[in-house]
Amino acid sequence: xxxxxxxxxxxxxxxxxxxxxxxxxxxxxxxxxxxxxxxxxxxxxxxxxxxxxxxxxxxxxxxxxxxxxxxxxxxxxxxxxxxxxxxxxxxxxxxxxxxxxxxxxxxxxxxxxxxxxxxxxxxxxxxxxxxxxxxxxxxxxxxxxxxxxxxxxxxxxxxxxxxxxxxxxxxxxxxxxxxxxxxxxxxxxxxxxxxxxxxxxx
Length: 202
Fold this sequence. Notes:
Helix 6 (about 130-140) links the parallel strand 5 and strand 6. About 20% of the residues lie in helices and about 20% in strands. The chain starts with 7 loop residues before the first strand and ends in a 14-residue tail after the last strand. It has about 200 residues and is of the alpha/beta class. The longest helix has 13 residues, at about 130-140. A 7-stranded mixed β-sheet has the order 2-3-1-4-7-5-6.
């Protein structure tokens, strides 16, 4: 997305086991989303520019300190306001990483606030029955599934799911019915307004 010229912000909204930050060497639980919601830091200060060696406009909003009431936070007007402020700051695409669909309700709460959901699966790790149930729950709240990502596909696993939808997660969320699934929000806006938060894009 960033390679196409879009200004991308990743919002780390897995308020249980955040992992996006570790990919970029960022400690997510220091300052981030929850810090902004509590009024401890301004949004522009919580956003972390991502240097991936391409000169592209990307930033991460880490989770911040993990709360005990994730669904209430993610369903709040304050969270929706942060998404609006990111759009007004110049973000073309907002990617929201969330917790798995099946064990917790967090993702279903977030999914109702975005333009669409990207679903993915890890072949042979995410059970087909779990994928089907995750998609059923997303559709039950009238979420638009706009795309599919298959992680770790090999020649041997390429036909594991056929053409079904799925969104996989790692073994950090094991539970009674095996490997759960998760969804990622995708929100975009052509709005190019300026605001104090725009500092993240320079």
